[in-house]
Amino acid sequence: MSESKKSADQSIEGISKSTDNSRPDLITQTRRQKVFAERILHVLVNVVVLNLFVEFSDAVVIDSFWISLLTAVLLTAMIGILSRVEARVHHFFFETHSWRAAGVVSVWLILFGGKFLMLEIVNFVFGDRVELGHLLEVILIVITMMVAFQLMTRVYDRLGVNDKATGLTST
């Protein structure tokens, strides 16, 4: 195989071999790449969760895969926004001030009321094409999305830990 063909094959794989062929060179990842990969993972996990709920729950109905993909993007954005709002409120009440009771009530209202907001926004955007069920189903969908994303993140992070058997380190 020619040298240029070997080089092209290695770049397609994403990992180029070092000169001694004992271990792959490590690939660096920019912050923007990491954020992009995290957001795509979020959407993909949410599409899977939504479609599993469509499959196994009569209360959740989505007309097509395309609509479920758009719903996943919308829910991912709303969960991200609500998480940032909750974090700011938490910081305000628990770290800036010592108003614990007000902080607990405020955070609970954001997390609980956010589910109603999600229902209404999805209903407004998609109308009859998406039915996420009642409040209980929405809460279960959001919790399942968050747990599934955390599991995927942990698997990804574990894949980056030193491999003691081969002595390779991946980042």
What does the model show?
The chain is mainly alpha-helical and 171 residues long. It is 71% helix and 2% strand. It has 5 helices and 2 strands; from the N terminus they run H-H-E-H-H-E-H. Strands 1-2 form a two-stranded antiparallel ribbon. Helix 2 crosses helix 3 (65-96), helix 2 packs across helix 5 and helix 3 packs antiparallel against helix 4. The protein is flat, with a radius of gyration of 22 Å.
Indicate the percent of residues in helices.
over 70%
Structural class of the secondary structure composition? mainly alpha
Output the number of helix runs. 5
The strand order across the widest sheet is: 1-2
Q: Strand portion, in percent?
A: under 5%
N-to-C order of helices and strands: HHEHHEH
Mean pLDDT: 81
Features:
two-stranded antiparallel ribbon, 71% helix, mainly alpha, 171 residues
Short description:
By secondary structure, the protein is mainly alpha-helical. The chain has helices at 3-13, 31-56, 65-96, 100-126, 135-159; strands at residues 61-62, 130-131. Helix 2 (31-56) crosses helix 5.
Secondary structure elements and pairings:
Elements: H1 3-13, H2 31-56, E1 61-62, H3 65-96, H4 100-126, E2 130-131, H5 135-159
Antiparallel strand pairs: 1-2
